[in-house]
Amino acid sequence: MTAGPAEVRAALAAAHRAEWGVVFGTLVRLTGDWELAEDCAQDAFARALPAWERDGVPDRPGAWLTTTARRRALDVLRRRTTEQGRLAELAALAEVEAVREPQPREDERLRLVFTCCHPALPLESRVALTLRAVGGLTTREIARAFLVGEDTVSQRILRAKRKIAAAGIPYRVPPPGARAERLGGVLAVLYLVFTEGYAPSDGSAVRDALAEEAIRLARLVAAEVPEEPEARGLLALLLLQHARRAARFGPDGSPITLEHQDRTRWDRALVAEGAALARDAAASGGPYALQAAIAAEHSLAPVAAATDWGAITALYDRLLALRANPVVQLNRAVAVGMRDGPQAQLDALDALGTPKELATHHALPAVRADALRRLGRTDQAVLSYRAARDLAPNAAVAREYTRLIAELAPPD
């Protein structure tokens, strides 16, 4: 049964979110050629639109896309061997033509993520390649996510692919003895992928599929290295944050702060799973374990007023001892303000100053505005909320600041 154009496009978009990494990874495994793999995967998705409009959406879109991409790779390799007689292409052709048992989807993605996060690659290239190869983001989307030009992202991905080829980096999950070395980079990349889905840096709509992909990969990694508490810590952190997704925005898309979220809308199954993992990982005292412990304190409080801000401040102190960065300091300032009052929050902000990492971020003036509002310094609070609004990442956040300003300074 054929589907209408809208249904086909929706099915194709869903297939891209769910299957890109599997299709691309399969072609990398079969051909060993990252450029060819990407070209063939893109070709398969391009061919899907007219084919599915004509014949209907297949029962197994991923299998259809993988088969189409594999056939395209065969065509390209046959043409190359005919034109050039190159031994490498002959070997790849034999690999692709061989009848093999399909690999589990999880194995394909795990190979891909560990290869993309190889320590021989610069961190920015690992992130860009993972988002492209595993998450299926376009170069433009990655550029927006990290506030760099598309040419920069393209070059990072190109250099990473060339490095993989030149250095002979194997396409595989590393053996147990080498996994610890690779784990930190993998976890950092997965957290960045999750963050891009949970709170896109370009201010666009939340991308649950990308966040869920990061969670799924984090589950795989945690299962692969059960002896590593930081892997469980990261998974706990992602689950606890993702559990709140249904309560994070109002009907008009305006963000709702943690304090004012309807906690009955939180996913209690994810909270329970994340909190259990956080408890299990806490003894390690690693950065992800500490962040997960903070998230668990928030998630387990039945109401906002019952939050144990003393415990959260202590966890931020431990986190700062490991990782002193302005974002952690800003979050600690909020915790101190909730524990000791708005003047303490303001003092902490004064001590933080305006670090370059936060100079253009709306959260810094927003947190200051909150402290000033609670101190009754209304005029100064309005000025800070206006500064936050000027830096808002999207219209919905800007509307929220406009609402707060209107509460403090109603128009005549």
N-to-C CA distance: 61 Å
DSSP helix fraction: over 70%
Specify Rg, calculated over alpha carbons.
24 Å
Q: Give the ordered list of helices and strands.
A: HHHHHHHHHHHHHHHHHHH
Assembly of the depicted chains? single chain
Structural class: mainly alpha
Task: Classify the beta-strand content into a percent band.
Answer: under 5%
Runs in which pLDDT lies below 50 for 5 or more consecutive residues are: none
* Record field, number of beta strands: 0
Task: Tell me about this structure.
By secondary structure, this protein is mostly helical. Helix content is 71%, strand content 0%. The chain has 19 helices and no strands. The longest helix has 27 residues, at 5-31. The chain is globular. The chain starts with a helix and ends with a helix.
Key structural traits:
412 residues
Describe how the helices and strands are arranged:
Elements: H1 5-31, H2 34-55, H3 61-84, H4 87-97, H5 105-116, H6 123-133, H7 139-145, H8 150-167, H9 176-198, H10 208-224, H11 229-242, H12 268-281, H13 287-300, H14 309-322, H15 326-340, H16 342-352, H17 363-374, H18 378-390, H19 395-408
